[in-house]
């Protein structure tokens, strides 16, 4: 059976970005079964025992309550499960002094679907044939944005500026406001904060500046807060969520231990929420309610934000410290390596300046010594211009054990040394 595919069918049946690399990684893992492989490529959060226990306890509470049948045996509203919507409104109103009502909140089956709704509601061709762009203000960013738009030419990303600390071997991306263009041709703006893959956190001022550029055109600004406070609170630096008329604060419960339950949350202006809600009704009626019901319990009791701050954040922050310390001792001071400032998320981002081979070739060489990371060039969706930097970076996941991270980084340092040495010799 070989059915003819439409344009959209062809596009959607392609694997984009990191999903394409994952195929290679999975094959490597399968072929290397029994071999010692340090897999530092995963985006899947680890199962932390305290977090698992929280969800077990909430499940027991739900099972024992009269609400259970209502949750799993009946359809619900497209907007989401009312007790979860109320729990979020109450928590955010108290925590951030907001005035949210239930009309400001939408629950989706994972936040990936939320970006799909938004990208195709606000980006693409209008009724009068104008192309509305989906702007990614700072590239690299989440690879999943590459696959969400049914009109691929709508996606446009901007190169950042780099703050480089040569002696410390650290760097940080900043949005380049001299290049960034938000205009009547913009449909929406999306960025992750903290950022997957880099761990960058845009400052409150940078976010406000982007929102202010978009406001005169009524352009929605989606702040992908999959790693942000109050949960999972995977920020290692101070940051405050920014709310406003044209911002859509987008959350995910995947990094608080519920990736399998698929829960995304959008908070914003009622009009934007209504558009996305209708999209959802057409697509899937509503997200599954079991995960929403246990999430409501954990938010109402206050356990979830505490778990995020006291268990989840320190766990990954320690992993970053292990990685950073290992690179400090293992990497030659004479090589031009730069680790992105670890401001949040569950990844480290390493830039090997003037790398004599591509990131893909470096990834292959690392595999030979049993270390798997993700080549960085997959994280620049929408960036149209050629940029050498794209082929000089690696994403290293903090989901390995301390030992795996230490050995992985020691081996990486050795491979880097050899690769640069070879090119110096040839030169
Ligand atoms: C920045 C970012 N946004 C969105 C997602 C999608 O998350 P989910 O669909 O599980 O909510 C991820 C997943 O890793 C992510 O890293």
From TrEMBL:
Top-level taxon of the source organism: Bacteria
Cofactor: pyridoxal 5'-phosphate
GO biological process: alpha-amino acid metabolic process
Keywords: Aminotransferase, Pyridoxal phosphate, Transferase
EC number(s) reported in the record: 2.6.1.66
Gene Ontology MF: a single term: valine-pyruvate transaminase activity
Protein's UniProt keywords contain Transcription regulation: no
CDD domains associated with the record: AAT_like
GO cellular component: cytosol
Ranges for domain Aminotransferase class I/classII large: 66-411
Broad enzyme group: transferase
Name under which the protein is recorded: Valine--pyruvate transaminase
């Amino acid at each position: 059976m070989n059915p003819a595919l439409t344009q959209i069918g062809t596009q959607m049946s392609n694997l984009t970005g990191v999903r394409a690399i994952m195929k290679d990684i999975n094959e490597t893992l399968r072929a290397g079964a029994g071999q010692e492989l340090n897999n530092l490529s995963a985006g899947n959060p680890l199962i932390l025992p305290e977090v698992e226990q929280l969800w077990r306890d909430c499940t027991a509470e739900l099972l024992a309550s009269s609400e259970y049948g209502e949750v799993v045996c009946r359809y619900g509203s497209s907007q989401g499960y009312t007790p979860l919507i109320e729990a979020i409104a109450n928590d955010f109103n108290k925590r951030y002094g907001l005035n949210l009502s239930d009309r400001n909140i939408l629950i989706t089956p994972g936040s990936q679907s939320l970006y799909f709704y938004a990208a195709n509601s606000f980006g693409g061709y209008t009724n009068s044939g104008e192309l509305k762009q989906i702007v990614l203000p700072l590239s690299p960013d989440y690879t999943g944005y590459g696959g969400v738009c049914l009109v691929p030419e709508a996606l446009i990303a901007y190169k950042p500026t780099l703050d480089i600390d040569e002696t410390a071997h650290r760097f940080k991306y900043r949005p380049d406001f001299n290049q960034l263009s938000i205009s009547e041709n913009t449909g929406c703006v999306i960025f992750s904060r903290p950022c997957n893959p880099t761990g960058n956190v845009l400052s409150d001022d940078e976010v406000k500046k982007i929102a202010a550029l978009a406001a005169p055109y009524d352009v929605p600004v989606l702040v992908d807060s999959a790693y942000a406070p109050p949960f999972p609170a995977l920020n290692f630096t101070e940051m405050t969520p920014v709310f406003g008329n044209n911002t859509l604060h987008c959350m995910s419960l995947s990094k608080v231990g519920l990736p399998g339950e698929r829960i995304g949350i959008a908070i914003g202006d009622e009009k934007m929420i209504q558009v996305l809600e209708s999209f959802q009704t057409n697509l899937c009626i509503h997200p599954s309610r079991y995960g929403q019901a246990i999430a409501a319990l954990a938010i109402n009791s206050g356990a979830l934000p505490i778990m995020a701050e006291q268990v989840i954040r320190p766990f990954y922050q320690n992993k970053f410290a292990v990685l950073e310390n290992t690179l400090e001792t293992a990497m030659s001071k004479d090589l031009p390596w730069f680790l992105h400032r670890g401001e949040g998320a569950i990844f480290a981002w390493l830039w090997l300046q003037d790398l004599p081979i591509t990131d893909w070739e470096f990834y292959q060489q690392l595999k030979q010594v049993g270390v798997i990371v993700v080549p960085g060039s997959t994280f620049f969706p929408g960036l149209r211009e050629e940029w050498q930097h794209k082929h000089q970076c690696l994403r290293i996941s903090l989901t390995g054990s301390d030992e795996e991270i230490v050995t992985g980084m020691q081996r990486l340092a050795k491979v880097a040394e050899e690769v640069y040495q070879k090119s110096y010799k040839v030169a």
